[in-house]
Design a protein that fits this description.
The structure is a single chain. With 350 residues, the chain is of the alpha+beta class. It folds into three domains: 2-39; 54-155, Immunoglobulins (Immunoglobulin-like), CATH 2.60.40; 162-184 and 222-349, no CATH class. It is 32% helix and 32% strand. The chain contains eight helices and 14 strands. The protein has helices at 2-26, 30-48, 162-183, 206-212, 240-255, 290-299, 332-338, 343-349, and strands spanning 54-63, 69-77, 87-94, 97-104, 110-118, 123-135, 142-155, 189-194, 216-220, 228-233, 260-268, 271-275, 306-310, 327-330. The strands form four sheets. A five-stranded mixed sheet has the order 12-11-10-13-14, with helices on both faces.
């Protein structure tokens, strides 16, 4: 709508200027010539106020906790004189999404644009496209320019919030207790100590608790050299990015206390494969061949390790009968619970 008004204003200004010219030629008086020169000066100054070129002088970027990007940059006139624009609109474009910033500008020496919480898609980004729409004096003429803003930033999957991370790790605590008991027998027990809030109820020694009159927990030795194998099966479902975000969060939570082996299984450069480095979170894409994904996952299994497999419910993964306790599956239901929802309650409401 604003562009339509600007075009109408320009058309009416040109029509009015033509009428002034005609009137001056038909009635060449001192007053008519004065009106003609004044109107000409008005039109020329409005036009020249938009004939300016821009260049970036500084760019500052920072990544927020939610992996969004904050960007601040400064634009100056190449001819070093102040801007004579009455108004400017900056539009930052990326993947079909546009963020806008608007400001008055008359007689300013630079444009300072600030964009907060830019939600860029996952991956590596070298540049962003910046469109500058300047409106000259009196709002008659406009000028459109285009700049490229260098950013060179990696956007990893969005990490879960602190409360969601706590729910996630609490849901996994019984699994680690069970696998510790299955892999480390009773003679690996260190001590019996008082119950703490972080302990799972399955670890309570009921017999000792009744004798001492308080909750007691058996503490077992853990094998420091035995890492956790974290798998992500990237099947093409609507929940792909959510599960990838959950896996990325889980990786950093586990790395804080133990060694973790990462197995990312999905589409990489048009081929289904297994990748092992964290930077591959940037490039992994969902695959549609379900059986191939399962085969790749099973072929990368290692013996005598605890395995956490993040996958969609649409991917059936058989559990070996010899060590069922060493496997823990995380799917959409787990993601919903971590987010504070409950699948059963959601179904009941529907």
């Amino acid at each position: 709508m604003n562009k339509l008004f600007q075009r109408l204003r320009l058309v009416w200004s040109i029509i009015l200027y033509l009428l002034v010219i005609i009137y001056t030629l038909v009635f060449p008086t001192t007053a008519s010539w004065f009106i003609f020169y004044a109107f000409t000066l008005w039109m020329v100054s409005a036009f020249l106020s938009t004939r300016q070129t821009y260049h970036l002088t500084s760019t500052k970027k920072s990544k927020n906790d939610d992996h969004s990007l904050s960007l601040t940059f400064t634009i100056q006139n190449k001819r070093r004189h102040p801007f004579f624009l009455s108004y400017v609109k900056l539009s930052l474009a990326f993947d079909g999404i546009r963020e806008t910033y608007e400001s008055s500008l008359f007689f300013s020496r630079q444009i300072e644009g600030t964009f907060q919480s830019i939600a860029l898609p996952r991956g590596h980004h070298d540049t962003l496209s910046l469109d500058i729409d300047g409106t000259g004096l009196y709002g008659i003429w406009t000028r459109h320019s285009h700049l490229v803003v260098p950013i060179n930033v990696d956007i990893f999957p969005k990490a879960l919030k602190k409360t969601e991370r706590q729910r996630l790790m609490h849901s996994l605590s019984p699994y680690f207790t069970e696998t510790s008991r299955s892999l480390n027998h009773d003679y690996y027990m260190n001590e019996i100590r008082t119950y703490q809030t972080r302990d799972a109820l399955s670890g309570i020694d009921w017999k000792t608790s009744l004798k001492r009159g308080q909750w007691m927990v058996r503490e077992y030795e853990t094998e420091e050299d035995a890492p956790v194998d974290l798998y992500f099966i990237g099947f093409d479902t609507p929940s792909f990015e959510d599960l990838l975000s959950l896996c990325y969060t889980l990786l950093h939570e586990l790395k804080a206390g133990q060694k973790v082996n990462l197995f990312l299984i999905g589409q990489f450069e048009k081929d289904l494969s297994v990748q092992y480095s964290e930077d591959r979170f940037l490039t992994i894409q969902p695959g549609s061949n379900k059986q191939r994904l399962i085969t790749l996952c099973q072929s990368s299994f290692t013996a005598h390790s605890k395995k956490i497999i993040v996958k969609s419910k649409d991917v059936p993964m058989p559990v070996p009968l010899d060590s069922p306790l060493s496997y823990r599956f995380i799917d959409e239901d787990t993601f919903l619970q971590v987010k504070g929802g409950d699948a059963d309650h959601a179904d009941a409401k529907q």
